[in-house]
Automatic annotation (TrEMBL):
This is LPS-assembly protein LptD. Pfam families: LptD_2. One of its GO terms (cellular component) is cell outer membrane. Residues 1-23 form the signal peptide. Gene3D superfamilies: Lipopolysaccharide (LPS) transport protein A like domain. Keywords: Signal.
Length: 903
C-alpha cells in the first residue's frame, strides 16, 4: 500500500517538477525568502488510498511546494495550509511525512526578526496557536510547544501540550485565564492542567496570579467546566454570601437537566445559616417557527426569629418591623409567546402571581418591591379563515398586595380578582349593502352603512366579601342623612378572605356573571358644501348580569329586605354627528432663509345625545325607604354589580362639543444646500387647541370648562407642553360656584419641559457586557443599581424634565397650590474606561431630593468594577463590586455593600 502512495507522489512530482525548487534541497524556515514574486498558490489534492490515511489530504502554499520522493516528505513554504477531514493546519512552514504520518509546523521570521505565520491547528471547534506543532494523523496524537488554546470561556497557556487519541490535552507549566490577551492580566498558575474538550478543565494545586504578582489564594485542585455549545445536563455550582437577615448562605446551587433540544429544566436552591431555604424550578422551552416560553415556580421559607419575638410587641404598640416575620411564600411566573401564522389560533400566556410577601423578601429591584398590583392572563384567539368572524377565550387574574409598607398596623390582606373565563365572539364591521345583496357597491350614500357585533361573556370572582345580606338593620336615628350613611355602609363594606379549598364555594357565590353585547353601527362619511365632512353616528350596547336587587322596608323589624333576581338587563344607546373641516393659510415671506409660514386650523363641532338613565323608565336607580319618614334616592338597583358593570349615570345629555386644533410651520431654505432651491419644513407649533361642551338639556351650568393645550418643540431638542383649564362661572363670597357667566378665568395650569441630549453613537461598544454580577443577599441586594451593559462608545447623555402645576382657587377661603419638580439623568465618560451614570429628582414643593443614585463603572478588560450609591430613601446604601467578567469565574470577586435590608 505504501508503494501506491509512493507512485502517486512520484507522478505528481514529475508533473510539477519544472515549477518547483530542487527536490534535493530542503529549505530551512529560518532562511525562507521574504520578498519573493507573487505566485498563484499551488494546490495539490491526493486521492484517498485504501490504507492508513482515511480521507483526502488537501494542501497548498503561496510560495512553493517541495517534494522529496525518496523520503516521502513534502515541504510547504509561505501561507501553507493542510486539510485532513476535520483537522486543518496553517503556518509559514509545514512538513508532511507520509512515512511516519506526522504533520510538523513552525513559524518563520521576517527581515526585522519578527515571527510570522505562527502555526494554527484546528480540529472541529477547537483552535490552537503555538510556536511548534507536531501531529500524527494516524494515531491522532500530538505534541505542541508554547501553546495558547481556548476551552469554553477560558484560555490555557502552556509550555508543552500533549494530545492523546481521546482528544484530551495534558498541559505542563500551565496558566488558565479568561483574559484573551497574549500576556493576561490574571491567571491561575498550575504545574499541570488536563483539559477534556467540551466537558471540563482539571488542575492540580494552583494559586492565583494578578498582574504578575503571585497571591496566596489557591487550592489543592481546580475544576472548571467547559460545556458544549449546545445544552447539556450538569451541576450548577452555588454562590456564597452573607446578610444580616439570613446570615451566611449558599444560593443558586442545583442541577440543570437538558431533557431534549427543546426543553431545559434547572432545579436550584438556597440555604441560610440562620434558618430558612428557597427552592426554585425553572423550565425554558423553545421550538423554532412555533413558540417559546418559560415557566418558573419558587418557594421560599423566610425564617426571622427576631421579628417573631418582636411582632406581637410591635403590633400592640402600633410600631413597625424592619423585616417581615417568619413566612412561607410562593411565586409563579409563566410566559408563552407563539409565532403568528395565518389561519391558525394564537395561544399566549403572561402569568405573574403568588404570595404578597414574596417580592418583599426576595426583591430584585426597587420597582419590584414597590409594585402593589400584579396581573396575569392566559388567552387563545383565532380568526375563522375566509369569514368576518373571530373568537377567543381568556383567563385573567390580578392581585393587590396592599402596598410595600412594613407597618404591621397598616398591612392589608392580598385581594385577588379573577375572570374565569372571558369568552369573546366578534364579527368585524361589514357593509350592510354587501351582506344583504351580495353586490359590488356603486357609490350610493346608503351603501356606506356598516354593521359589526361583539359579545363578551365574563365570570368575575374576587376574594372580597361584598355580598349584600338578606336584610339590613337600620338604626333608629332622627336624621335621614345618618340613616343613609348606616344603610350605605352596610351595603358597600368589603373584607378580604383567604384563598383556599375551603373557600371555593364562597368565592363562586361572591362572583358575578355577565354578558356584554356591543353593536357597531356606521353611517358613513359625507361631504357637505364641498369643504365640510359630516359623520353621523349611532351606538347601542347591552349588558346582561346575573344579579338585580330590590329593596323593601319592614316597619315592624325596622329593616330593609333585599331580594335578588338572577337576571338583569342594562342597556344604553346614543346618537350624534360631527362636522369638521380644514382651513389653510399661508404668508409668503420671501426672506433670506424663510420662504413662507403656513397655518392649518382644524375646527370641529359635534352633537351628542344620550337619555337620562336616572329616570324611573329605565329603573336603574330607585328611591329606597329606610325609615318611617326617611328615604334615600338614587340607590342603584344593580348594587354590587357596579364593580364590574358599567351602569350609566343619570342626567340627559343633549349638547354640542367644540374643538379646534392649530398647527403652524415654517418653510426655510436648507442649510446643507443654500445655493439651490432645496427647502425644509420646521414646525413652530405642533398643536394649539381648545375644546368645551355645551349641554342644552342641563338645568344649570350648561357650559363645561374650557380646556386649552399647547405642544411644540423648541430648538429641536426641548419638548414643551402646556395645558390649562378655564372656568366660565362666577363664584360668590362664600366660594360657591353660581350659575352666572363671567370672563373665563383659568383654574389650573400645568407645564412640562423635557430635553434629551445624546450625541450620535459611533456603533456598538467594543466592551462586552459584564456577565458576572454579584450574588444578591437574600435575593435582596443592589443588583438593580449595577449596569448590565455599559456602552463606552457614547461619550455622554443627558435627559432633563421640569414639571409645574398651578391650581388657582376661585374660592377665596381656599389657598391656591403650586408644585414644581425637576429631574435629570444621564451618563458621562471620564475616560475611555471610566463611565459615570447619575439620576436625581428634586421636589421644590417639599424642598427635598425625592430620588437620587450614582453609578460608576470601570472597564478593567477582563475585570469589571462597579460602584453604586443611593443616598436617600429606604433603599439608600452603596455597593462596591470588583469581579472577573467571565461567568465561569463568577465567584472570583470582591463585594462590599449596604442597602435597606442589611444596614
Amino acid at each position: 500500500m505504501r508503494y501506491k502512495i509512493f507512485y502517486i507522489l512520484l507522478l505528481q512530482f514529475i508533473t510539477i517538477a519544472p515549477f518547483l525548487a530542487s527536490a534535493q534541497e530542503v529549505i530551512s524556515p529560518a532562511t525562507l525568502p521574504q520578498d519573493t514574486l507573487t505566485v498563484s498558490p499551488d494546490s495539490v489534492a491526493l486521492a484517498a488510498p485504501q490504507g492508513d490515511i482515511q480521507t483526502t489530504i488537501k494542501y497548498s502554499a503561496s510560495d512553493s511546494i517541495v517534494l522529496e520522493a525518496n523520503n516521502k516528505i513534502a515541504h510547504l513554504y509561505g501561507n501553507a495550509k493542510i486539510e485532513y477531514g476535520t483537522v486543518s493546519l496553517e503556518a509559514a512552514y509545514i512538513e508532511i511525512n507520509y512515512d511516519t504520518h506526522v504533520l510538523s509546523a513552525t513559524p518563520a521570521t521576517d527581515s526585522t526578526g519578527k515571527e510570522i505565520g505562527v502555526p494554527v491547528f484546528k480540529d472541529g471547534g477547537e483552535t490552537f496557536a503555538a510556536k511548534k506543532i507536531a501531529y500524527n494523523i494516524k494515531s491522532k496524537k500530538g505534541l505542541i510547544s508554547e501553546v495558547v488554546t481556548q476551552q469554553g470561556e477560558g484560555y490555557i497557556h502552556g509550555e508543552i501540550v500533549k494530545r492523546n487519541e481521546k482528544n484530551e490535552f495534558s498541559v505542563f507549566h500551565a496558566q488558565y485565564t479568561t483574559c484573551n490577551l497574549e500576556h493576561p492580566h490574571f491567571y491561575i498558575n498550575a504545574s499541570k492542567i488536563k483539559a477534556i474538550p467540551n466537558e471540563k478543565v482539571l488542575s492540580g494545586p494552583f494559586n492565583l496570579v494578578i498582574g504578575d504578582i503571585p497571591t496566596p489564594l489557591g487550592f489543592a485542585f481546580g475544576l472548571f467546566p467547559t460545556p458544549k455549545q449546545n445544552r447539556s445536563s450538569g451541576i450548577l455550582v452555588p454562590t456564597f454570601g452573607e446578610s444580616r437577615a439570613r446570615g451566611f448562605f449558599l444560593s443558586n446551587g442545583g442541577y440543570y437537566l437538558a431533557l431534549n433540544d427543546y426543553i431545559g429544566t434547572s432545579i436550584t436552591g438556597d440555604i441560610y445559616s440562620l434558618g430558612g431555604y428557597k427552592v426554585n424550578m425553572n423550565n425554558s422551552y423553545f421550538k423554532r417557527y412555533a413558540y417559546n416560553g418559560n415557566l418558573s415556580i419558587a418557594y421560599d421559607y423566610f425564617k426571622n426569629d427576631e421579628a417573631d419575638i418582636e411582632q406581637s410587641r410591635a403590633a400592640a404598640a402600633g410600631g413597625r418591623l424592619a423585616l417581615p416575620p417568619t413566612t412561607r411564600s410562593i411565586w409563579i411566573n409563566w410566559s408563552h409567546s407563539p409565532v403568528q401564522k395565518p389561519g391558525r389560533g394564537r395561544f399566549s400566556a403572561n402569568v405573574s402571581a403568588g404570595s404578597s410577601l414574596f417580592n418583599r423578601v426576595n426583591m430584585t429591584s426597587s420597582s419590584n418591591y414597590l409594585t402593589p398590583t400584579f396581573t396575569s392572563s392566559i388567552s387563545y384567539q383565532k380568526t375563522i379563515p375566509n369569514s368576518p368572524f373571530s373568537y377567543g377565550i381568556t383567563l385573567r387574574q390580578s392581585q393587590r398586595n396592599g402596598g410595600a409598607t412594613t407597618d404591621l398596623t397598616k398591612r392589608s390582606p392580598t385581594v385577588m380578582s379573577f375572570v374565569l373565563p372571558d369568552v369573546n365572539f366578534a364579527m368585524t364591521q361589514m357593509s350592510i349593502f354587501e351582506m344583504l345583496t351580495n353586490k359590488v357597491p356603486t357609490g350610493e350614500w346608503y351603501e356606506k352603512f356598516t354593521f359589526g357585533y361583539n359579545v363578551n361573556f365574563q365570570n368575575n370572582v374576587v376574594n372580597e366579601y361584598g355580598t349584600r345580606p338578606a336584610t339590613l338593620q337600620v338604626l333608629p336615628v332622627n336624621s335621614s342623612r345618618a340613616s343613609a350613611e348606616v344603610f350605605g355602609g352596610g351595603v358597600d363594606s368589603t373584607r378580604a378572605f383567604p384563598l383556599n379549598f375551603n373557600n371555593l364555594g364562597a368565592l363562586w357565590r361572591n362572583g358575578q356573571r355577565q354578558a356584554n353585547h356591543n353593536f357597531s353601527i356606521g353611517l358613513g362619511n359625507y361631504k357637505v358644501a364641498r369643504h365640510f365632512n359630516l359623520t353621523p353616528s349611532v351606538n347601542y350596547s347591552e349588558i346582561w348580569t346575573d344579579e338585580r336587587f330590590s329593596y323593601t322596608y319592614d316597619e315592624a323589624t325596622r329593616t330593609v329586605r333585599v331580594d335578588t333576581a338572577n337576571f338583569g338587563r342594562v342597556y344604553q344607546y346614543g346618537a350624534g354627528a360631527s362636522l369638521s373641516t380644514n382651513i389653510y393659510g399661508t404668508v409668503q415671506v420671501k426672506g433670506k432663509r424663510v420662504e413662507a409660514i403656513r397655518h392649518v386650523m382644524r375646527p370641529a363641532v359635534a352633537y351628542a345625545f344620550s337619555p337620562n338613565y336616572g329616570s324611573s323608565s329605565f329603573d336603574y336607580y330607585r328611591e329606597v325607604q329606610i325609615g318611617v319618614t326617611d328615604t334615600i334616592t338614587n340607590r342603584p338597583v344593580y348594587g354590587r354589580a357596579r364593580r364590574f358593570t358599567n351602569v350609566p349615570t343619570g342626567g340627559l345629555q343633549s349638547g354640542l362639543s367644540f374643538n379646534v386644533q392649530n398647527n403652524v410651520e415654517m418653510k426655510v431654505r436648507s442649510k446643507s444646500d443654500s445655493t439651490s432651491n432645496a427647502f425644509e419644513k420646521i414646525s413652530l407649533i405642533d398643536n394649539l387647541g381648545a375644546s368645551t361642551f355645551y349641554n342644552f338639556a342641563a338645568d344649570s351650568f350648561k357650559l363645561s370648562n374650557i380646556n386649552l393645550n399647547l405642544n411644540t418643540r423648541l430648538f429641536k431638542i426641548i419638548n414643551f407642553t402646556l395645558t390649562s383649564t378655564l372656568d366660565p362661572y362666577l363664584y360668590n363670597t362664600e366660594g360657591r360656584r353660581i350659575n352666572k357667566y363671567v370672563m373665563p378665568r383659568f383654574s389650573n395650569a400645568s407645564m412640562s419641559l423635557g430635553a434629551s441630549l445624546n450625541p450620535a453613537s459611533q456603533g456598538a461598544s467594543e466592551t462586552a457586557p459584564p456577565t458576572n454580577l454579584p450574588a444578591l443577599e437574600d435575593g435582596i441586594g443592589m443588583r438593580q443599581n449595577l449596569p448590565s451593559y455599559v456602552d463606552f462608545k457614547i461619550p455622554w447623555t443627558l435627559s432633563m424634565d421640569f414639571t409645574l402645576y398651578y391650581a388657582r382657587s376661585l374660592n377665596p377661603n381656599v389657598a391656591s397650590t403650586l408644585t414644581k419638580n425637576f429631574g435629570f439623568n444621564g451618563s458621562v465618560n471620564l475616560t475611555d474606561k471610566w463611565k459615570v451614570a447619575y439620576n436625581a429628582y428634586y421636589d421644590f414643593t417639599n424642598n427635598n431630593i425625592a430620588n437620587a443614585s450614582l453609578n460608576i463603572h470601570r472597564d478593567l478588560h477582563c475585570w469589571d468594577m462597579s460602584i453604586s450609591w443611593i443616598p436617600f430613601g429606604f433603599m439608600r446604601g452603596y455597593n462596591l463590586t470588583i469581579n472577573a467578567r467571565s461567568s465561569l469565574l463568577r465567584d472570583l470577586r470582591l463585594t462590599r455593600n449596604r442597602s435597606g435590608w442589611n444596614r
